[in-house]
Amino acid sequence: MGATFFLVDEIPFPDETTSGAPKALVADAQASGARRKYLARGEAGFYSQVSWFPSGYTVPAHTHSHDELIMVLDGSLTVLGGGPTLAAADSVVIESGHEYGFEAGPDGVTFTTIRTGAATTALT
């Protein structure tokens, strides 16, 4: 048994054009300044990342191929379609295949995502 550490400041930003995410989503995110860093990539079965989105950035409706937990670290986001606004320390569990999207709050949002597998993304 061991431990694997992920020091965010030491992890480079990935080349999102090779991430497998929909190209239109990647291009829009890059133009806005949205960024993410991958953390766990299968260690002990976890897949995680930390993401930063600027104020007002909208992530359109989409689905993932694996269940996920999103926890807001800083700022806020509002779930599209009349969902709640999540602030620091709030979280949501989203089942595989569930359609959702969100808009970053007035101060932007930083959150972590933890998935049960290496997920694919599909715009809906």
List the helices and strands and how they pair.
Elements: H1 23-32, E1 35-41, E2 47-53, E3 58-64, E4 68-79, E5 85-87, E6 91-94, E7 100-115, E8 121-123
Structure description:
The chain is built from one helix and eight strands, in the order αββββββββ. The protein has 124 residues and is mainly beta. It has a domain at 36-118: Sandwich (Jelly Rolls). Strands 1, 2, 3, 4, 5, 6, 7 and 8 form an eight-stranded antiparallel β-sheet that branches. A hairpin with a 5-residue loop joins strand 4 and strand 5. The N and C termini lie far apart (41 Å).
Tally of contiguous helical segments: 1
CATH superfamily of the domain at 36-118: Jelly Rolls
CATH topology of the domain at 36-118: Jelly Rolls
Q: Uncertain regions: pLDDT < 50 for 5+ in a row? A: none
Q: What's the alpha carbon Rg, rounded to whole Å?
A: 14 Å
Q: What's the CATH architecture name of the domain at 36-118?
A: Sandwich
How widely separated are the two ends? 41 Å
Measured by DSSP, the beta-strand proportion falls in: over 45%
Total strands: 8
SSE class: mainly beta
Q: Helicity level, as a percent range?
A: under 10%
Give the overall shape, derived from the CA principal axes.
globular
Please state the average pLDDT score: 93
